[in-house]
Each structure stands twice: as structure tokens, then as C-alpha cells.
Amino acid sequence: MASMIFSDCSSSATARLLPLRCHKLHRSCSVLSFCRRVSLPLTSTRPLLPSLSSLQAHVSSTFVSVSVTAKMATESSAIVIDGKSVAKQIREEIAVEIARMREATGIVPGLAVILVGDRKDSATYVRNKKKACDGVGINSFEVNLPGDTTEQEVLNSITKFNEDPSVHGILVQLPLPKHMNEEKILNAVGIEKDVDGFHPLNIGRLAMRGREPLFVPCTPKGCIELLHRYGIQIKGKKAVVIGRSNIVGMPAALLLQREDATVTIVHSRTNNPEDIIRDADIIISAVGQANMVRGSWIKPGAVIIDVGINPVEDPESPRGYRLVGDVCYEEVVKVASAVTPVPGGVGPMTIAMLLSNTLSSAKRMHNFN
Ligand SMILES: NC(=O)C1=CN([C@@H]2O[C@H](COP(=O)(O)OP(=O)(O)OC[C@H]3O[C@@H](n4cnc5c(N)ncnc54)[C@H](OP(=O)(O)O)[C@@H]3O)[C@@H](O)[C@H]2O)C=CC1
Ligand SMILES: Nc1nc(=O)c2c([nH]1)NC[C@@H]1CN(c3ccc(C(=O)N[C@@H](CCC(=O)O)C(=O)O)cc3)C=[N+]21
Asked: CDD domains, alphabetically (predicted)?
């Protein structure tokens, strides 16, 4: 976990989340319905959020029977994109599919997680993944290795899972201890079990036109899924991704480009990042700096997906800290047309996408549709 900082830009001050009384847009399709209780956005002449009719045209058709309640912040214009609810729905959909597969084939998807070292945050993530697997009916296999374990021992665990037919997905929890060669370890995961989508072959295919990766990295996939399920059009929009890491920023930019956005990447060496960000219709921020993106950096009506998970000191919280995003939430919520909260935004979607990738892997291996 990133080092703790003090912050006076609270992540939750204005965000009293109100469940909306929603009318379903289209009961039988995968529409995430929401109502607008206040006008959107404050000053934009061309709101990014589409009209209800265009919403119907742009929603994802991958899933059925979505009835998430969208939430809005009080005293603001932005729709709060409720990743927690969407993720719950996706997990329910996955559970149904897993039961169908089990009944038809007797096969249950399996996910193996390898955790090296004793980082508290990593242990928490792994515990949450196991819980999520249990919830949908995925078998989970866990290997915990001490921090001073050798690279070869990690590679041995990967080989064992590569060869195990009851394992359909392998995840090596990052970050690895400093003495390990992350590239070598991630390359060892069989591409057909690479549910994190971090293998260079999967990333390479994601980057190439006309090629399809076997798996798309979970966090960027979760960001795009949120945009789809909220009916937010990506095609033709100006998107800015802040951050260019292998696991979030870079694949998020590739995915947005595949969705026909025009994409700019902002990183730590970018000159005048605010000016570039202010031009964006869609912003995905994956930096790891609490409250870095300010309200004044945002074009009115922009859509903001905040991937950052940053602990800030909070004596009032039982843990002594709370999590905030990269985005100064109470400022941007007044300017944006839609924004993800932290927690409860992208984080739960990451786990839901991991389950989805594991199910897809099992289906592919057993030729089950
Ligand atoms: N919600 C979720 O499911 C997940 C959340 N996360 C969170 O997302 C955040 C990013 O994670 P990750 O991508 O792994 O982090 P990395 O540290 O690997 O990458 C951070 C990126 O941000 C860029 N950056 C750093 N400072 C600035 C700055 N001041 N202005 C612009 N760009 C900057 C870096 O630029 P450069 O390349 O130049 O160094 C780098 O590309 C973290 O808070 C992490 O906890 C991560 C994974 C999943
Ligand atoms: N091989 C690998 N794959 C990963 O996908 C991976 C990884 N390593 N290493 C660490 C990062 C981080 N990450 C998160 C997943 C879920 C939440 C999440 O669910 N967060 C909750 C809050 C959880 C809490 O309160 O502690 C939320 O945002 O609502 C956050 C972060 C996956 N990562």
C-alpha cells in the first residue's frame, strides 16, 4: 500500500449517495437505468451523458437483467457510478453461468492465487478474491510463500498450476518482493490461464488491430464495463488516461482506443497535464496520488473513472486511515457529469472482472458456450 498521507480533500464529504427511484429503460436488456434528478452537467453545452434513447443504443449487450440503482451526490451534478452495485450484479450473472456449466459438464472453474511475502494490503486483496470466488462457485487455490522465497519456488508453483487441469486461471499477486524478476514470473504463466491479462502476448494482442487477446486486464476491463453499463458513449470521445503502468494505465489506453476513443496518455513527465486533462470527455486516472486531480482540471460534463486507491490518515476511521482516489472527489463531483467513488467504484469491478475472466477461461478450455 502506498505510504499514508494527510489530506484535506475528503473523498466522501459531499457524496451522500442517494438511491434513485428509477424507471427501467428496457427491462429485458442489460441496461443500467438511472434517473436524472438534477440537470446534467452544470455548464456543458454538449453533455457527454447521452439521452435516454441513445442510452438504449449504447448499452452493453453482454449481460442480462441489470437493475442497478444509480446514485447521485447531493448538491452536485455528477452521477455517481456505483461500481459496487454493478460488480454485485455481474457476480450474480457469473454465478448463474457457473451453475449452468457445472450442471451441463460437471466442471467448476478454478482460480489459483500466488501470494509472496506478508504485505497486509496484498493479503487483504487475496482474501477478498477468495471470498468473491466462494460467492460465485469458483474453486480457489492459494499458495502463500514467504517474502524471502526464491524466484524458482514461485516458478515451480506456476508450473504446477499450469499443468493442473482443475485450474483455469492463475494470478500472481503484485507487487512481488524486490529481489524477484517480475517479468520472468509473469511470462511463466500459461497464456491460456493468464486471467490477469498481464502476459506480454495478451498485452501485445490487445495493442494490435485485428488481433484478440485471450484475456483483458481486469482493472481496465472493469473501467470500460462501467462506462458501457452506464450507457456512456466512448466512440469519438477525447479520452485521457493518467498513468501508463503495465497493469492499469497502458492497457486502459489501449482498450479506450479499441473502443474508438481518441486517447492521450498523461504521465509523470507530461508538461502542463492540467491543460491536456481539461480537454478530455473521459478521464481514467491511475496514478496513486491522493486527490491529485482537481475540479479546475475538469471540463464541465466530463466522465471520470478514478482507479487510484490511496490511504489517507483518518483518526476517526477504525483502521486509522481511509481510502481515497486520485481525484479530489468533492471538487470534481460539482463539475463532472459522472464519477466513480473510492471506495465502491473501480475496485469491486476489478474483482468481478477476474471472476469473469476465470469463467471465460474454463468455458474456452472445455469448449462450453
Ligand atoms: N481499483 C483497482 O482495482 C486498482 C487500483 N490500483 C491503484 O491505481 C493506482 C495506480 O496503480 P499502478 O498503475 O499500479 O501504479 P504505478 O505506480 O505502477 O503507475 C503510476 C503511473 O502514474 C504516473 N504518475 C505518477 N505521478 C504522476 C503525476 N504527478 N502526474 C501524472 N502521472 C503520474 C506514473 O508515471 P511514470 O510512468 O512517468 O512513472 C505511472 O505511469 C494506485 O493507487 C493503485 O493502488 C491499481 C490496480 C487496481
Ligand atoms: N496480480 C495482480 N492483479 C491485480 O488485479 C492487482 C494486483 N496484482 N495487485 C494489487 C492491485 C490492486 N487491486 C485491487 C483490487 C480490488 C480493490 C478493491 O476492491 N477495493 C475496494 C476497497 C477495499 C478496501 O476497503 O480495502 C474499493 O475500491 O471499493 C482494490 C485494488 C488489484 N490489484
From this structure: NAD_bind_m-THF_DH_Cyclohyd (cd01080)
Mean pLDDT for 190-197 is 98
* DSSP symbol at 40: S
Atom 42 of ligand 1: nearest residue by CA position = 288
Contact 105, 93 (CB under 8 A): no
CB distance 263 to 248 below 8 Å: no
The yes/no answer to whether this complex scores an ipTM above 0.95 is yes
- DSSP alpha helix (H) spans, 230-272: 249-258
**Global pTM value:** 0.87
Q: Which ligand is nearest to the CA of 288?
A: 1
CB 114 within 8 A of CB 173: yes
**Phi-psi region for residue 90, left (φ > 0), alpha (ψ -120 to 50) or beta?**
alpha
Residue linked to cell 486471467: 195
Residue among 224, 268, 356 to mutate when testing ligand 1 (max atoms within 8 A of CB): 268
Mutation test of ligand 1: which of 173, 225, 248, 265 has the most ligand atoms closer than 8 Å to its C-beta? 248
* Residue 148, pLDDT above cutoff 60: yes
